[in-house]
Design a protein that fits this description.
The chain has helices spanning about 10, 15-25, 50-65, 175-190, 210-220, 250-265, 310-315, 415-420, 430-445, 530-540, 560, and strands at about 35-45, 75-80, 85-95, 100-110, 115-120, 125-130, 135, 140-150, 155, 170, 200-205, 230-235, 330, 335-340, 350, 355-360, 360-365, 370, 390, 405-410, 415, 465-470, 470-475, 490-500, 510-515, 520-525. With about 575 residues, it is an alpha/beta fold. Strands 1, 2, 5, 6, 7, 8 and 20 form a 7-stranded mixed β-sheet that branches. Helix 3 (about 50-65) packs parallel to helix 9 (about 430-445) and helix 4 (about 175-190) packs parallel to helix 7 (about 310-315).
Length: about 575
Amino acid sequence: MVSVSTPRHEAEMMCAPCEASEASAGARREEPIENNSRYDVVVCGAGAAGTTFARTFAETTAAVDGGENEAPPSRRALLVDRGGCAKTVERVERVTRRASVYGARAEALEEFRAAGVTTTTRAVVACDAEKKTVTLDDGVVVRYGALCVATGASPRCPLPETCDGDGVDVHEVRDVESAEALARRVSESARASSSSSTRRIALAGNGGIALELVDALCGRGMALDGLESCELVWLVKHASVGDAFFDVDVADFLARALELRRRRDDGDVREEMIDWFAIARSSSSTTTARAAKGGKRRKVGAAAGPDWISTFRAEAKGANGTGRRRMRLRVVKNVEIRDAIKTPEGTNALTLTDGETIEVDAVVAAAGVEPRCEWLDEKDAPRSPIDGGVLVDECMRVVGRRNDSIFAVGDACSMEKRASAAAAPWFQMRLWSQAAQTGAFAAKVAAGACDGEALGFNFELFTHCTTFFGLKVILLGLYNAQKLESEPASDIVTYQRETLSENPEECQYVRVLLLRGRMMGAVLVGETDLEETFENLILDGVDLSRFGPHLIDPDVDLEDYFD
């Protein structure tokens, strides 16, 4: 099993807010957790889901208990996270009634004490669900009334399990520290001489992180001298880029929009136009694929957040950079890494599934994540056979015999029960917005203030707002025919239009999906101003058959018509 690890000095680094808090604390020390102490809830993990659960539970129980400044002993909460840095999701902008843009704020774990939450920088290593206890890595046993599993997920290693991979430089982007480490590695590659470096980095993955990294390095560029002499080799195992989010039509539009942007922006780059859909053929802070055979995964902190790319760009920016520079980009489709070795010269030789071998300075792992809850017995918390997450019911409680005392939220859980509801155009995707929502909802349930109806929470319509290649992207409902596999193809109709312009404000892509005349999903790229109208049409279930392709006609004012 290939694992991803980090040198000790890197794993112990703190993000800026947490480091500042640690420095200002002076001689203050963390309050010890007494052995056999009891908490009403123990929250494992201080990412978006865990912090939201802890804060919401504290606020809800305080209100239920009469608004007292300090919750009684039976209502105490303990937040456990080895990294010591918490991530809180904040709404940056409300786009529609149910769709918002989110950002992340890092803060020291101890800041949660003000909300009445006890915190500790430990890790949970074992759980006795029958006795309702967890064991921390210092041997302390803690009793709980309810346990919230919010340990998130770990990046998938892009090297196959059969690959030894000893010493291969693999960088993940999962928390603030790993984003900064990757930025430093890119800077080193840009500044290195050609005799000591290939000046080439491989990117293995095809999801949101991969898209954002390509945009940062090859689209917008950075003020980093030497970057233009480096090459990013994007290894995509699918037939199109961005497969985790889009189909080939949307991916093609975004690819062409990025190329227009590269040609339009002023800069010092002089490279030829990229053919994204041709299979390309061509012949000091690191993360090693395996510190030693059978090595352990490094301890990771809270995830970097939806705005991680800002951290990356700030860390990678050259002190004497002049103007924006961009890496050359080569896309290789329908391939994965078959083998990887460390060469005597110190580079990394990757053998691809199509037989090609390339040498790179480092490999960036952006191939998705795997739920991280190995310390929890599957008998007490059954796993999904699809994605390995902890299976939960409509109230975020684990299925099976521990349903009364264990919750799972965020990336650690699998919401197959709720997502299977055929009537709701909602499905689970491991996003920060969903992590925060599941944490808040589960906390309300644990506090006795909410039930399976989930009033006040949006489980009725999937929404996601983000930015790819400088363009606003809004995804609504079953935009890519999710959950519609069993429907007759003749009952599903899609309409799409696009406008591609060198003026980014004029670039638009609109696609709607209808099932028997009722809108089920939509993809909106650019400033379309259609998101609120389409959201309402999806939720209202209006028969739109008579409109046909006029639904996406820019000259038809749908908002006025339906108002």
